[in-house]
Amino acid sequence: MADATMDRPVLRVLSGEAISPPPAWMMRQAGRYLPEYRATRAEAGSFLDLCYNPAFATEVTLQPIRRFGFEASILFSDILVVPHALGQDVRFVEGEGPRLDALEGRAQFEALREAGDPAIFSHLAPVFEAVERIRAGLPHETTLLGFCGAPWTVASYMIGGRGTPDLAPARALAASDPALLDALLDRLVTVQTEYLVRQFRAGVDAVQIFESHAGVLPDSADGDALKRFSLGPIARMVSGIRAEVPDAKIIVFARGSGLDGHARVVPETGADAVGVDWGVDLAALRQRVPATTVTQGNLHPETLIEGGAKLDAEVDAILAATAGLPHIFNLGHGITPQTPVAHVERMLARLRAGR
Ligand code: CP3
């Protein structure tokens, strides 16, 4: 990996180097805003069929690289393949998002596969095959990112059975049976640490851990819910991964954790970089954290839909806030299906003009 680092701008930034203009990728860059994605998706069948078919998953992963030449490629999959591998029923309802059989108590928890059950990783074998195929199909200089969800975010879907704005079911379980929530988080820490180690062994260069629900957490007796439910479990994953892959590069995206939460991510998890959501003032964050901290983000996905002068101005503001500092250009959350492809082109032209 040492050799490839020098050739891959995203890995160089993750090692602390400032590059101008910064390398770029987009969360959800393989997705419904691309006509070629919609075509492959239609051919594959359901969303999960696409995730578990290495040839199709490789194709959609490579599509945004071919079209835009992003410096990083992210494995096409979903954070919910892990609950699926644990034996929970997972489906994606068209136009509605994910649906799981909600984990309401001990009985459903006990029905899950235990960490160490070989069936978990045989279920996920198509993901590792996709990683090998993607790496073989990528330009040498493109960084390949693997990923998974952070334990709290994945647990909140497992408990609620769907995305809910206030995560009421997961917070209720935390109040009624805190030991059960801890056991579920522990299971996810263990299984997903191995999952990311196996992604590295299959060929990813770096990984991102998505804590999309860092903004809504249960109450913690010690008053530090962010540490107890989010940064703590992530830190255990980071050290577990590094025990197996010592030079593993890790990005943590803790959406909704605010300026204070974002500033805590790198010191408290040991990650190499913090993914910044669109709600955080990037200039203020850069002033709060050491100059050596690697940031990633944070263009508002709605600005990308709007385009025009506002888009140019936001690209310029991100470049100004991160000039001379190690930064990876990205959105502050996933690109949405209604985004015009021409606006992505405009964003990259502005960025690559290096203003
Ligand atoms: O970023 C990428 O291009 C890689 C692929 C990727 C997907 N999901 C594909 C996907 C990644 C990294 C994810 C992560 C993910 N999945 C997260 C964390 C990031 C975030 O958005 O906060 C979460 C919370 C999920 C769970 C999930 N999957 C939801 C809530 C939904 C429905 C929302 C939607 O956009 O429809 C999905 C479905 C999903 N995952 C789609 C894609 C491309 C759309 C489904 C389709 O194509 O039919």
Automatic annotation (TrEMBL):
It comes from the Bacteria. Substrate binds at R28, Q29, A30, G31, R32, D78, Y157, S212, H333. Keywords: Cytoplasm, Decarboxylase, Lyase, Porphyrin biosynthesis. GO terms for cellular component: cytosol. Pathway: Porphyrin-containing compound metabolism; protoporphyrin-IX biosynthesis; coproporphyrinogen-III from 5-aminolevulinate: step 4/4. It catalyses: uroporphyrinogen III + 4 H(+) = coproporphyrinogen III + 4 CO2. Its EC number is 4.1.1.37. One of its GO terms (molecular function) is uroporphyrinogen decarboxylase activity. PROSITE patterns: UROD_1. GO terms for biological process: protoporphyrinogen IX biosynthetic process from glutamate. InterPro entries: UROD/MetE-like_sf (IPR038071), Uroporphyrinogen_deCO2ase_HemE (IPR006361), Uroporphyrinogen_deCOase (IPR000257). It is found in: Cytoplasm. Residues 23-32 form the Uroporphyrinogen decarboxylase (URO-D) domain. It is an enzyme of class 4 (lyase). Its main location: cytoplasm. Pfam families: URO-D. HAMAP family: URO_D (MF_00218). Catalyzes the decarboxylation of four acetate groups of uroporphyrinogen-III to yield coproporphyrinogen-III. NCBIfam families: hemE (TIGR01464). Homodimer. Belongs to the uroporphyrinogen decarboxylase family. This is Uroporphyrinogen decarboxylase. It comes from Methylorubrum salsuginis. The gene is hemE.
